[in-house]
Amino acid sequence: MRALLSTLLSGVACLHLAGAATAQTLPPVPAEQTEVQPAILVADSVFITPERQLIAEGNVEAFQGDIRLQAQKITFDRQSGQLSIEGPIRIDQGGRATVLADAAQLDKTLQDGLLTGARMVFDQQLQLAALQMTRVGGRYTQLYKTSVTSCHVCENGKPPLWQIRAQKVVHDQLEQQLYFEGAQFRVLDVPVFYFPAMRLPDPNLKRATGFLIPSIRTTSQLGTGIKVPYFFRLGDHRDLTVSPYVSSKTKTLDLRYRQAFARGRIEIDGAYTRDDLIPGEDRGYVFATGQFDLRDDYKLKLGVQAVSDNGYLADYGLPEYDRLRSEISIERFRRDSAFRIGLIHYETLRDSEIEDEIPTEIFDINAEKRYFPTGLGGEVRLAFDGHAHQRQSSANVVGRDIARATLDAEWLRSWTFASGLRADWRMGVAVDDYRVWDDSNYASGTLRSAPRAALTLRYPMIYRGTTGTHFLEPIAQLGWSDVSGAPLPNGESNFVEFDQGNLLALSRFPANDQREEGKRAVFGLNWARFSPSGWQAFATVGQVFRSTSDPRFSKSSGLGGTASDLLLAGQITLPQGLGLTARGLLDGSLNFSKVEVRGSWTDDRTSVSGSYLWLGRDLAENRALAVSEFWFDGSYKVNPYWTASANIRYDIEDSRATRAGIGFAYQNECVTVNISVNRRYTSSTSVEPSTDFGFTIALSGFAVESANKEYRRSCSKT
């Protein structure tokens, strides 16, 4: 029978021996305020000698909190207050850190002592092996003649892929830092770098001031350069990352600032550049975002995008926008109400656009409220929509400025009959007050009204069989709307999409400056199938008929004429990870005016996604030539260590690629290497074709949750 001894001796404070701790955000509690937890000692035998020594031997285990100590023998000399521990010794602390040693001499508080043949393991990955380990003051662990690595160490003596050899390593448990003296960085035991002194974070520390993973980037325009990020921890809620990027043709300083508040957060990214692409000029960009929670569920959102010139984002591999959007808004969304007000500034990066002739300052305000009157039944919606935009130019027509205010009221009600037929009724009216400046073709002020009504009938049917469940829903709608008042300029509804989302809408224009008029009928069919084996399929077919054609709809919108193009949309998903979505508009000549197909496939080793888009020639949408393109992005896991990836964007109409890239990533338990090559073929006045080579290497073990057992290597027998 194994002996069990439970004691309240403060000397059995195994927590201080673990050599690692979780992140500290508050000062340590004074000793007099610390509650001493009981420790439990278990061994094959526990006895006290005539010399007043407590001896526990044979599979000795000690427990205190989340600490577990295992040894072959423990001797406690009460007179000297020393603990002698014979190994093999193993001390675990909640799976975060483990200490292994051959033998140990410690005082009764376990605050000070000496361990020989010791090894410390953080997060089951980073290993610090030393000839001797000393504990000082319960806070510092000193290791002498130490080897540090996160690679799997084989017993056959084969050196790890990389290691750091140091004369001395000090682990500060409170600050969670590792200090190296006389350190060598070795690759396959070959010295590569020497550091007289070096500091690295404890793997359990989530945020620490220091260097981040460097990267090497080579482009045909900027040459070969290196970026070395440095992270500044400015407190528990703020940080700054400074990333110098230097090559033979550029000197760039990237900055990122983040701060969290009690009710919000901000992030600012930017860069300052002097390069040979535009000699003698300052270049750079600033992107900023912010969000704050205000009183009564209101939210304040901020967004800033600014760049020095049209080509900067493309030159430096940043997200390529063709227009920059800066915005400040306040919004609140509740179950029966919605409110949003925003001010937006646009800046074009398209060489074909003249900045003064596009709307750059935009103001929007939207408010909606729902009511459920018991006497009337159904639902009543009241809404206000305001919009204004301004161009910098004051020239006639091209400098047109607009302001609009809309009041809208709508009543909706539904009935479900015993036969299963469902009827949806809606009727409403909108009143617009429209103002126009700098355009002599339209009146300066226009007031118009737009009543509308529609009845929609649905008959959903379900069939459940041994092969699966089928859902079929025929749909029919009769609708009418009218607009009284002078015609208005089309300033917000130049591009119209016809899809499942607006098949039953009474106006398919994206904004209220344009509205559909006349009598209309819509016929459609929804179908779905759910198979017991796991695959699912959905399809929608629909068409719109109107009493008179509307010339405001472009040819490729699919809504021109008295009968629209036939809307075809479908989706299929398979349990094997395959998904396919398609949408198209088929005209009366059985030709497609628009086609879009998206697909993806994912399994344990492969991840593939792609899209195909075809748009017909349409001058009304500024498209002089048809567009036919496909995108592809995929990766394949060659083996547990290597992953290959590729991407391409191909212009079928021009028979050339616009973008293409390949990449390779190698990852094991101690290192991650990424190599990529990307080529941009397109060019403009401000952007030239370029090739971008990227290379990064990261050593695992010095970041939180960096370990990955999936990539653990095995040792060969030779």
TrEMBL record:
This is LPS-assembly protein LptD. The gene is lptD. Keywords: Cell outer membrane, Membrane, Signal. It is found in: Cell outer membrane. Component of the lipopolysaccharide transport and assembly complex. Residues 282-642 form the LptD C-terminal domain. The keyword Nucleotide-binding does not apply. Belongs to the LptD family. It holds the Pfam family LptD. InterPro entries: LipoPS_assembly_LptD, LptD, LptD_C. It comes from Ruegeria alba. Residues 1-23 form the signal peptide. Involved in the assembly of lipopolysaccharide (LPS) at the surface of the outer membrane.
